[in-house]
Structure formats: structure tokens, C-alpha cells
Design a protein that fits this description.
Elements (H helix, E strand, L loop, with lengths): L1 E4 L8 H5 L2 E3 L8 E2 L3 E10 L3 E3 L2 E10 L4 E7 H7 L7 E5 L2 E4 L3 H4 L4 E5 L7 E5 L4 H10 L57 E18 L5 E8 L19 E7 L14 E12 L2 E5 L5 E5 L10 E2 L8 H17 L21 E14 L4 E7 L19 E2 L1 H6 L5 E6 L3 H6 L5 E11 L14 E5 L8 E4 L5 H7 L1
Parallel strand pairs: 1-11, 2-4, 7-10, 14-16, 22-24
Antiparallel strand pairs: 3-9, 4-6, 4-8, 5-6, 6-7, 8-11, 9-10, 12-13, 12-15, 13-14, 15-16, 15-17, 17-18, 19-20, 19-21, 19-23, 20-22, 23-24, 23-25
Amino acid sequence: MEFDVLKVVSQLPIRALQSLHRDETSDIKQFGQKMNRYLQGKIFKKFPLCSNNGAASLLKMILEDGVGKINTFCLGEYAYDIDKCSVGDTLIIANPLVETSPHFQRDKIHRFHLIIGERDQPCHVWVMPARQRTQTDQTDTQQESGGSSVASTGSNVQQQDDTGTPAPRTPDRQTTATTQGKSPNKRSYLYTKLVDVKETNSVNIYGVVKFFKPPKMTSGADYYMMMTLIDPSLISDASDLDGIDNSKGLKCNLFRKEIKLLPQVLRVGDIVRLHRVKVQLYNNELQAVCNPGFASLVFDGRMGTPLKPRSSSAEYTVTQQDKDKVRELQRWANTVMRSSEGLSNPSRTLSDVFIGQYFDLTCQVVAKALLPSESAVLLKVWDGTKCSWPVRDIDAGNRPIEWDDTAAFRAEGLTVDVCLYDDHVPAGEKIQPGNYICLYNLHALKYSPPGEAEDHPVSMGEFCLHRGTSYGRGVTVMPQYDPDIQELIR
């Protein structure tokens, strides 16, 4: 990522930008990376720089290009650099990241906003101070017949090679926020202990999942998940934990347009790293919400598991400091959290579950059928073990059943029927035969055939994922590299 201030008009990277397509604010209509494109606009409004423990973290500004306005968020060192610019300065942003604006209904500025400085984003920014605009306009007029007219940004003078491409330069300071002795391609981050978290627009945190609800579709177009994070600064020993209703912990209410952009939490005890999360006060309680530039990593919290994170983004950085922090939290979670009770539903296999129990089940989907008349999805699943009591075989009627032939061959005689009701139907519809899933707060209950007395001795049971998300109830598709899935595959 590059950032440059142009001190004379002759430094305009005309040839470099001729290979890019210029967008106006009205052309920005799609989420994602705007590769090989750039946007040019003036700073219409600039908000105060938000910092995290003294480290530059987030800067918001509004750009205007003559056609419209758009919110723009600068992250990390870009926030520090661009904060030196003034209202009226002209910026050119090449290859910005575009995200849906959650504030459009309120501010009516633009349905999308721009992100500068996200992870290893191949973004280049130039700035032309306002005092040079008159000279720039004259140059643009002279060049109308010969090439694109642009204005540019930055903090260092950058020269061009004979192709017109800005030549590499030695910056007067690191723009990647690296620490002494570390690779310049990796940024260092400051992390705040949960006990020290206060209302802020941007903060980086680590935490252990105490409780969570799997992602679900909202009534709108977003996906939502909730989790509560704890760390040693909040919990001294197991006596401080008394189940999921305990008030200790930072509650995170997260909304994203795509489910893959949410933290990929699979179980209580997972370790979560959140970057650029906003913390606000709601009903006299601190809660974390998504912020522009929000990113997450999730590590398995169990001791001895590989340090392979589940990421909400395609590119991320894991330093030795991160690995040390994860191992530290793993040790803490396995000594303090595991000695307490009531934190989650017990994980069980089909062979050791009993009727009346709520539990978590990791299994493979063998077949699926949609039952719209019952507002349900039927899954036939197996986990490599045999249930010790008869399970109701649900009649799908004339509804088609999708099968995975390989799974059906392996699971012959070991499958059980599971029904997902109401809230869980949208998630169930997306599950495919052959997928490995985890069913959270699954209920093994007595099945009473029509006409049979309620006090009849138990002869048959059934598995149901009831409506609602209480106690973390839900379903998640598991990654195949998860240790539990690898054990099931073997």
C-alpha cells in the first residue's frame, strides 16, 4: 500500500493512472475490491482521528467528486497520514475496498463506503493540497487531448520512471506500522484487556468465547451472531463463572452482509481476535459491534490443536506474538473454564445420549428433505456411532430427498432423523448432503405416537432442533480440517 503527497503538478502520475478506469461516486454500486479503478474527489468533511492506546486506528472523512459524496474510512497508518490533509484537499484512491454503508438510512450520503488500508489491500493514494488546485486545473486543461487528468495524495515526494509509473521510494517512516526488527510487510497491533475496554470507535481485543449463538439470517439482508468474550482480566478463577447468565464478559452483537464475514466460532472456548471493533453503551451495558474495517480470526481453544485460524478475510497476519497470546489463552481457558459447569451444552455422540437431554452433536449429513407444511427441514445424519434406543423415522411424504451416495454407503444402518424447525429452516436449506455440521442445543425427546398415552413407557425417541436461539441453539457447517471432523472421517 502506498501514500504520497505531490508537491508540484509535474508529479501527477498520469501514465500510471491511464491504465486504470476512473469511477465517479455514482458508479459505485457493488460490494468488493475495486481493482484497476480509481476515484478522485475533494475532502468535503473530516472527522477527528480515533486512536487505540495512542496508535492511529481509524479516520472518517467524506469525499465529494462533483457528482456525489461518499463516506471514506482510513485504517492504521493511513489514518495517521491522511489526518494531516485538510478539507478541500484532493485525493485519488486507486483500488479501494467497497463495503455496504450501515448508516445510509440515517445520513443518506451513499449506499456504500470506501475502506483504505484494509489488511494487504493493494491500494494507492495520492493527495494534492488545495493550494495547488488552480495550477492543477490549468494542467488538466492542457492535457485534455493527451491523457487522463488527475489530482493526487501522499506524504513523500515520489518520482516516476520512464514509463510514468511511480518509482519505489524510501519513506521517512514505516507506513505499515511495523515494530523494530519485524518484517515491514507485517503490522503490529495494540490489544486492550477486556477489563479496560470502554466506549470507543475502534479497539483491538482478544477473548475466549464464553457463550455464542451461531449466525442466522435477520428479517432484512444481514446475518447476525452474538457471542460473549472473557479473558483473565475479567475472570480470576472458576468461581467467577456461573453459567451463561453471568454478567461478566463483553457481549458482541455483530451484523454483516455475508455470513463468512462474521467470526467463525464453532464452540465455547474458541479464541477470538477482533480488529477495529466499536464498543458502545446499550442499556447500561458495554457491547461490541462491527465497524468499518472490522476483521476477525478464530482459533480452536483446545490444547494441542493446530494454530490454524478461521478468518473473516482472505488475507490476514499472524505473528509470533499472536501465537504466544493464543497459547496463553488456551492454557487459561482449559484450567479455568473447563473446571466450571453450565458454560455450554455437553458434546455427545449418538451412542451415549439419553432421552430428555440437550446436547451438541457433530455429524455428517447423509440426506436432506424440505418439509414446508411443517416449517421444517429433515436431515438424516450419522456420527459413526449407533444410538442405543429406537429413533423415530420421519416420513417425508412425497417430498424429494437429496442424498449423498458415498455418505449413505458408509452410514448404512447408523443414520438418525433430525428435524430443524422455524428459525433454523433458512440455515437448513443451505446445508448440502455430505456436509459436516454441528447441531447446538439439539434435544433428544420422547416420541409418543398418536393415540399413545403420555405416561406410556419410553419406547422411541426423536431429535429436534426447536425454534428460537436460546442457549445457543442453532446449526453450523463445520470446516473439514476441524479436529472433530477429521476424527469422524477416520
